[in-house]
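Database export, one record per block. Field names are fixed; values are copied verbatim from the stored entry.
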Amino acid sequence: MNNLFKKILRKKNINHKHPAHLKKCLSALDLTLLGIGCIIGTGIFVLTGIAAANQAGPAVILSFIVSGFACAFAALAYAELSSSIGGCGSAYGYSYVAFGEFFAWIMGWILLMEYGMSIAAVANGWSGYFNNALTAMDLGLPESLSKAPSLGGLVNLPAMVIILIMMSLLIVGAKQSAKFNAAMVFIKLLTITLFISVAIFNVNPANWHPFMPYGWFSTLPDGKTVGVLAGASLVFFAYVGFDAVSTAAEEAINPQRDLPKGIIGSLAFCTVIYIIVSLLLTGVVPYQELNVSSPVAYALQKIGFQWASAVVATGVIAGLTTVMLVLYYALTRIIFAMSRDGLLPHALSEVNKNTNTPVKVIVFCGLIISLIAGFIPLGTLAEIVNIGTLAAFVIVSLGVIFIRKLHKNNKATFKNKWHPLIPLLGIFSCGALMFFLPHETWRRFLIWVFIGIVFYFTYSIKHSHLNKKPA
């Protein structure tokens, strides 16, 4: 029994180096745009309206502020750990150093669920917008090719195709993917600028009353949660993305300096954008009307700016494309790191000599996720992404405390000055947002964790590289 505990709690050395490396090619600007590319997407274009209509009313701005603060604490923890530990495994890699192998595996397993489900969910949303654009040009696909079998179709073909296109981009190389991401980020920032410039002159202050129609938090008889805090746990999905920056550590030119800049910079920029857009959105249209698939485009249409609405719809497609690209990128790097440690099959960590990218894991993920997106409508499973991300943030915040204690002389470039207050606030705020999620989400999450535990004890514990030599 003691031997088993030693195995599952064995830790990787903070200075551990791997023989398999990825090409260093990403600057601080690339990393910041990577974060913005992933953060600004589904949250601002979809969830803003849904949270306002169903959970928070005009006070959705407070929901974004609450979530933004929770993410800020976690972002500071990510910035410190990415600066001191690095590696492409994000929270998985940090957990390996701070808590040991078993907890690292669970963290990695949760991240696989978070990113995998996110990509498939966003691909479904992208497919809907893309088919709407085709329909507007009288080129719309039939339902048999645009919906999953359970929704009356045969396959969601656009969702499958866009994931395979993202797969091709990632195979070509990280720098080329970053350039494509930068172009798409530029398009969607223009889209948001257009909305702000039009909406600011069409605000009706009466739409902000009552400001908090659902209060701070309450649970309805059907189990649904409403209020500002419930809205915060939903719009939290809008912030998923800045943590993806940390998965690019091995491809950053100067990770100790640039990763903290990319993480904190992208989060700060997007928080300001979210607050401005949510304030204007609820000021232009009554919050009760915003429970639609594209509330930003709907609001512009409602006030008579049809052309602006069409441009925004185009921006939504660009926005969701970058979200998929960055999530896909992050997923492949996490699997690469876990495979390189022996916890997943070795083939998934082989780097192609021509492209300097892990081609096998990129293709493996692309084929599986395209099938999921094509044949399974994910629906409310998007909430499980939130619980997985929040769990990661709690563990990373806790990890900072452990790393500071165990490695007092560690020369991290970035260290927050208010230690351990900041990580403790991160643990508390993210843990609280987990509490506000529905019980069904918790049940699905625990089932996934149980499957991961079974996999670890039947495969990973035996094949771990720490079995063969010390880290």
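Remark 1: The first strand starts at residue 218 and ends at 219.
Remark 2: The beta strands are 218-219, 225-226.
End of record.
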